[in-house]
Input
Amino acid sequence: MTRFVMALSALAIGAVAGAQTQTLPDLEQAARGFGFRIGGFFPADNKLRDFETTWTDVGIEYDLERSMVKNGTTYLAFDWTSKGFFGGVHSMQFSFNQRFYGGTSRYSGGGAPYFYLGAGGQWTDFAGETGSSWLLRGGVGTELNNGWFAEAGGVVTPKISGASTSGISLSIGYKFK
Output
């Protein structure tokens, strides 16, 4: 828990220091690159399935201004996965990701298919048993009309307090552009 508080404090100090050295954008510019998604998460670990077989997964994404690869998008993602929307049994995840688009091909619905890969950290609370670790994530998705997108993904994590938050998620989201 101490590591989590220290990391959160460092992020807050960095955000405040960065905000003081730059001019604030207008609301239209601030909304570009943000997205949110909601869906179901299906844990692979029996200990977590004993709590609930289908968990709620809520995510917020921020597309960075520059991508690491030519036909892609580099983005940060924050996920909250829990057996109830604000339940005591949950996983909080932060990851650095790369989305790779499948060329210029588009579906008739107007969207482009993609796959993504990412890595980051997670903090968990399983009914009072807390811990933190690394995570790897990946999946496939497609952009739909008017900023909507759909994804299917997976997360791989080590065990914390005897349980792993590895599993599969299905979600739908909206991206502000």
